[in-house]
Amino acid sequence: MKETTRKSGVDNVKILMVTIVLMVLLSGLSLSLDVIIGLDKLEAVKNALNPFRVMETVEMFILAFLVLLIFVDALVFWYNKHKKGTSK
Known about the structure:
Keywords: Membrane, Transmembrane, Transmembrane helix. By secondary structure, the chain is mostly helical. It has helices at about 10-35, 40-50, 50-55, 55-85. The chain has one domain. The protein contains four helices and no strands.
């Protein structure tokens, strides 16, 4: 039978990296626009972090848990891949 390989860990890492790159670029754009309209850099950073200030504690735990799940899935995939590679 044909052996199928699990690629969800790799796909999750790719999705995570694209998400992080987009977040950094959009945050940079937001900070730049705030500075252009005349806000100082500290106020621009406060405006950029505002969505996280209004999150409740439970929402922060859920967000951290979801990010942790992505990393755990990637680490399990990596561990299984290297374990399989060393057993040959």
